[in-house]
Amino acid sequence: MSQLTIGEEQLCWKNWIDCRDPQAGNTLVEKYLPLVSYHVQRISVNLPKNVSRDDIRSLGMMGLFDALERFDPERDFKFDTYASFRVRGAILDGLRKEDWLPRSAREKSKKIEATIEKLEQKLMRNVTPAEVAAELNISENDVYAALNENFFANVLSIDEHPQDQEEKESASFHIKDEHARLPEEYLLQEELYVELSRMIETLNAKEQLVLQLFYKEELTLTEIGQVMGLSTSRISQIHSRSIYKLRNVMQGVKHE
Predict the structure, then answer these.
(1) Which domain of life is it from (predicted)?
(2) The Cα angle at residue 152 between residues 147 and 158, in degrees rounded to 5
């Protein structure tokens, strides 16, 4: 974020809140632009190459402008926290409204899923990306990419709605709950998470570290590469391979 002293930022907020001073607004937008870049980079990891980062950035900018317009400094949360929710929410909402995954990609993913199921039934074990790739005469990277894109598309399809209630304005999206869960359903979900944790422990050290840095520490792939001394493309490969290995359990958790 661009450097402003505490006093300078407070003055900008005063001028913006009191009279919507354009210069103050521009200064605040410039300060929080890195939030947009951060969410664009993280979300873009799972998107196909046909989705323009410029388009995603435009969605993020709309979220930042919306956050600036709606933010109430009297509320009990910081602007960067509030803006982060709005930016991420605007990007996901924009992606959800567009059919960004081409039909050919969806068909390819379905074909790969069907092949995985067929091979697993035939071999009575989990199959490797190399085996799936050989069966379909495609590359392993194609297998990783297709499944990752489809998984993210399914996550986006979950029915989410903006939180516009005044008392919940600090959050941007929630998953609609049509009915209360039974105790046994909670127990099943807990078992799935335990299984997911167990499977993560079976990953090698690099794979576990990449998942921890990406999902827990919230570093970008580029930042993870700097930490581990590897290229961004190599980190992306490790991430994709890890997600593939966890695919079955992750799908079980998602469908709960």
Answers:
(1) Bacteria
(2) 130
Asked if residues 158 and 74 have their Cβ atoms less than 8 Å apart, the reply is: no
Contact 175, 72 (CB under 8 A): no
Give the pLDDT mean for 20-46: 89
How many domains would you assign to the chain?
2
Its domain, for residue 81, covers 6-97
More confident residue, 176 or 128: 128
Work out the average pLDDT over 109-115. Answer: 84
Question: Which CATH number characterizes residue 90's domain?
Answer: 1.10.1740.10
217: which DSSP letter?
A: S
Residue pair 45/221 in contact by the 8 Å Cβ criterion: yes
Residue 70: which residues within 8 A CB-CB, separation 6 or more?
86, 169
- The yes-or-no verdict on residue 5 having pLDDT over 80 is yes
| pTM for this prediction | 0.54
Q: List the CATH number of the domain containing 252.
A: 1.10.10.10
Q: What is the pLDDT of residues 198-220, one digit of tens each?
A: 888 888 888 888 888 887 777 77
